Amino acid sequence: MAENSAEKTEQPTARHLRKAREDGQVARSIELPAAAVTIGAMLLIYLIGGVWFQRVSALFANGFSFDRKTLDNPQLLGVAFMHQMAEGLLLILPVLILTLVLALLASGATGGFLFAPKSIMPNFGKINPINGIARMFSARSLVELGKALAKFSLIALVLWILVERQMGQLMNLGQMGLEPAMAAAGMMIGESALWLSLSLLFIAMIDVPYQKFSFNKRMMMTKQEVKDELKDMEGRPEIKEALRARQRELANARMIQKVKEADVVITNPEHFAVALSYDPTSDGAPILLAKGADFMAARIREEAKKHGIEMFAAPPLARALYFTTKEDHPIPEALYLAVAQVIAYVFSLADVQPGVDPMPKPRPQVPRSMLFDADGKLAQN
């Protein structure tokens, strides 16, 4: 029994997941950002590779060309070097910006964007050699090793195919001029790099679902942890109030659903409303199905109007029923006569024949011991 209670068989609660997120623990795949960044960069290089490599070669050639003025003034070499650095930075700036944007978007694609200060705090448990050895031989480490071997094998296979296909073009580079050769080499390198990076997408497509599954498995809870968390939450005043509010909401919703089964709704007419049901074939007293004050009274009246339930305005009787009778309970014996007059009148309305005067509307009298004001206080004798 103790072993079963220690097994993590329960799905993680929202509070448990929120706490793990605050600690920096989310489902995260390092393969997806790597694939996105590499594919994006290689795609850009493939699209602009010819022109880009031509400009790189021209910039490289200009770096070894100096005019007479520069040779006579060695201090100008620093200026020329900085100029070359600035042009080189401008050439690679589009790639840097694209990879930065892709890295940010892909990082949040799996577990969402997260900044957790707790995750960057020093944790001396991570430098414990015993824990380190345990992590080295854990199932997670074996999976990571398998992924690394799979990536290496896949990339080696794709690279071998690319070299085989482009061998003729590689041999022709030696017979071309510098700039055409650099442009052709740029196209080949860009195309090869794009195919190599696309091979990473296969690993990422497997890794993302696995990371989500692995994270959910790590977040699983034992039955005792769920009980302890529930006990802790119920002990908080704000949680208790939220639970009570939710319970009231559900109870009110159930009560409103019962209004359609009522035979009459006795009203105040604005502040109170009481829905009653009576079965003439039984010997029991009328049953109070729903009651409410102010907002709830308005909802009961709306529901009664929707279902064609007769409403009878009798303020003293409505207050007496509201303050003395619980939901789903029979009315007090002291109110039998007053309620009977109302129900008899309502039933008679359904049997009115054309040309026949309806039964006069009664004025039910409430015993003095059942006269309440709007605050629920008994009237003074």
Molecular structure report:
This protein is of the alpha+beta class. The chain has two domains: 9-231, no CATH class; 253-370, name from scop. Helix content is 64%, strand content 7%. The strands form two sheets. It has a five-stranded mixed β-sheet, with helices on both faces. The chain has a two-stranded antiparallel sheet with strand order 1-2. β3 and β4 (272-277) form a beta hairpin. The longest helix is centred in the middle third of the chain and has 42 residues, at 178-219. The model has no long low-confidence stretch (mean pLDDT 79).
Shape descriptor reads elongated
Strand order, main sheet: write it out: 6-3-4-5-7
Report low-confidence residues grouped into runs of 5 or more.
none
Helix percent reads 55-70%
What fraction strand? Answer: 5-15%
The major β-sheet equals: 5 strands, mixed
Give descriptors for this structure.
about 375 residues, alpha+beta, elongated, 7 strands, name from scop, two-stranded antiparallel ribbon
Summarize this, please?
The chain is of the alpha+beta class. Helices cover 64% and strands 7% of the residues. The strands form two sheets. A five-stranded mixed beta sheet has the order 6-3-4-5-7, sandwiched between helices.
